[in-house]
């Protein structure tokens, strides 16, 4: 095992010990995961919950029922999630892809070979790498590691340096360091989000951190402020990272709790 593999696994074990299993993604079935993954772009999860509740109350949380809505009706139901007209177009684009490529059959889509499924998702309006990988790991149970701004922030501070600061490079860092296992990848991502909300916030709380003794920043080997700026600027510049943003108030939930 390489030193990097050893460190990636060590971090996982420390996070499991601190936070326990997270059991993501909370949803009644894969379609709700997909809708939640799209609605959570650029907003806090609390707002997504309100939009999902509206959809449930209207009986619109299935592909067939959502298809029957006009764009305006759908937008109104998901209004609490913000950017609601844009997100309505994204949801409808997903349904169009489902109809055109998979005869409208969600199970058929999710059963597609994983690379084919990822390509189909990435070719769909409004679905970038993060959203695609959330759908892949939590709805299709396929092993793709989800990288978000929290991942980059925490692991940069820990001292990990992928070759380039891109989505693909960060994803490779994890996927090459861990067994290719969807449950493990899903759990690890959920733990990173919990850790980023609890300790590795914009202003990190290193004195309460489960990773302090293995973290370059926690051990005082580099400064937080400079590193933070680099990570945030890189995230803002990278189109692949636009799906999920770190909330200004890092205590706000940007993912399911
Ligand atoms: S020690 Fe500090 S900088 Fe390092 S992971 Fe923990 S909270 Fe983040």
Global Rg = 18 Å
Give the H and E element order.
Answer: HHHHHHHHHHHHH
Tally of separate helices:
13
Helix content: 55-70%
* Mean pLDDT rating: 89
> Which kinds of small molecule does this entry bind, naming each only once?
iron/sulfur cluster
For the record, what is the CATH homologous superfamily label of the largest domain?
A: Helix-hairpin-Helix base-excision DNA repair enzymes (C-terminal)
- Overall tally of structural domains: 2
Q: What structural class do you assign from the helix and strand content?
A: mainly alpha
Describe this structure in words.
The protein has 257 residues and is mostly helical. It folds into 2 domains: 3-20 and 146-241, Endonuclease Iii, domain 2; 30-139, Endonuclease III, domain 1, CATH 1.10.340. The chain is globular and about 55 Å long. It contains 13 helices and no strands.
In short:
The protein is 57% helix and 0% strand.
Key descriptive features of the protein:
mainly alpha, Endonuclease III, domain 1, 13 helices, binds iron/sulfur cluster, Endonuclease Iii, domain 2, 257 residues
């Amino acid at each position: 095992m390489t030193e990097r593999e050893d460190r990636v696994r060590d971090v996982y074990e420390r996070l499991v010990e601190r936070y326990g299993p997270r059991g993501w993604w909370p949803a009644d079935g894969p379609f709700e995961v997909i809708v939640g993954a799209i609605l959570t772009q650029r907003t806090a999860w609390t707002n997504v919950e309100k939009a999902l509740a509206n959809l449930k109350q209207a009986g619109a949380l299935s592909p067939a029922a959502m298809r029957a809505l006009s764009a305006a009706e759908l937008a109104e139901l998901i209004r609490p999630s913000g950017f609601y007209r844009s997100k309505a177009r994204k949801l409808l684009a997903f349904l169009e892809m489902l109809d055109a490529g998979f005869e409208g059959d969600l199970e058929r889509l999710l059963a597609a070979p994983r690379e084919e499924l990822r390509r189909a998702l990435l070719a769909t309006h409004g679905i970038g790498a993060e959203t695609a990988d959330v759908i892949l790991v939590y709805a299709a149970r396929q092993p793709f590691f989800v990288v978000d701004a929290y991942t980059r922030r925490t692991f940069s501070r820990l001292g990990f340096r992928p070759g380039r600061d891109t989505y693909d490079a960060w994803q490779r860092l994890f996927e090459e360091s861990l067994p290719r296992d969807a449950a493990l990848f899903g759990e690890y991502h959920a733990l990173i989000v919990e850790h980023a909300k609890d300790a590795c916030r914009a202003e990190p709380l290193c004195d309460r951190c489960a990773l302090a003794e293995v973290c370059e920043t926690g051990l005082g080997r580099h400064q937080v402020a400079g590193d933070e700026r680099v990570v945030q600027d890189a995230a803002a510049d990278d189109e692949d990272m636009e799906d999920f943003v770190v909330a200004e108030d890092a205590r706000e939930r940007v993912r399911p709790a």
